[in-house]
Amino acid sequence: DAKTTQPNSMESNEEEPVHLPCNHSTISGTDYIHWYRQLPSQGPEYVIHGLTSNVNNRMASLAIAEDRKSSTLILHRATLRDAAVYYCILRDGNTGNQFYFGTGTSLTVIP
Amino acid sequence: KAGVTQTPRYLIKTRGQQVTLSCSPISGHRSVSWYQQTPGQGLQFLFEYFSETQRNKGNFPGRFSGRQFSNSRSEMNVSTLELGDSALYLCASSSLAGAGFNEQFFGPGTRLTVL
Question: Which residue of B has its CA nearest to A98?
Fold first, then answer.
């Protein structure tokens, strides 16, 4: 799987939007972009995924650049419960269910 | 539906011993993957099983092995434990095999400490 690059840490004020960037310049045409987050003392949990078009769900939005070499996870209103490590992962459907996690972005939400 | 369960949640072993960890996937899920999480290396893929067959394997020594039963429950075994095997071991289940779009559901993990 192709690698991703994320900032090590970010801060956000509570109730404000958060934009978490991810670079994946070597993405291939069949790679899906997944975001997972890991709250303290828990296993990772699914946030959102997309292939080419922007995606929205109840948790977040995913904005994918036109050339697909970068993407941004958007949390519309950060809450204290959103403090976690966010992982951006590329997955090729032909290579199985393994995820290759990078270092992720540690999000701190300031009350 | 019940989530992914892992037992035990905490385990303390000494060097040289072996350990077996268990994972019960979400009902109906046939794919189970295992990951090791350490502060230094982060989350690393160990192996994946689907319908009792190992489909993929990460870059870990042969001391790490696994298996999957007909009811999709999976176990992983680590023999001849080393201090560096101290980690959080996570199990994830998925309903599909190898589809780039499907999500994985992670369990809470088993915290293994090797003394």
Answer: B45
